[in-house]
Amino acid sequence: MSKVLIIEDEPKLAELMAAYLDQAGYEHHHLDRGDIAVNYVKNNKVDIILLDLMLPGLDGVEICKQVRQFSGVPIIMVTAKAEEIDRLIGLEMGADDYVCKPFSPREIVARVKANLRRVEFDQTESPRTDGFDLDIDRIRATYKGELIDLTTVEFQLLQLLIKEPGRVFGRDLIMKSIYADSRVVSDRTIDSHIKKLRKKISAVAPELNVIHSVYGAGYRFENNDH
Length: 226
Prior knowledge:
The chain is an alpha/beta fold. The chain has helices at 11-23, 37-43, 60-67, 84-92, 105-118, 152-163, 171-178, 187-204, and strands spanning 3-7, 27-31, 48-52, 75-79, 97-100, 128-129, 132-135, 140-143, 146-148, 211-214, 218-221.
């Protein structure tokens, strides 16, 4: 049974989410403060996090940032702030999805299911291309043995591109492939993920240039140095 961590300081909202998660068959645990969240994730089994943005003790963006230093667990940001800049900030910190209040509890359950499905990869041999090694079971990417510190979405993006070197993936196709509901993201969000992914690859291999922009079309994976 998958375990959902609810980090929400509004008791009635947390109870409502918990009730719907119960009906859907999910185990769950509730925290009402941000400053105890990171240690909880470190010391307990958590399969997905519903993370409020505004919390006492420590806000959701900072929690997300700290969790991403040691875990790729899916994180769904839950907030009343709907502006695009807030959405991009949340995703830049490593969030996998974003839900704005007010929302239907059924939508929360649907998002939880969709994000858990994304990390349930087929038990197939890890793809290897030009020194990259993707460990699908552990959502872990390395380049020539050096760990690339990726979020779940960034791993999914690299996996998508690397499977078909040279193929141009449009933003719409990328959205449909790594997001169950493309309405929660925009072209700018995809571009933001690409920028982050390039930066993280460059951190372990500065000379490497494998993710290319194709003007007006999208992105492709190709190592022109080999």
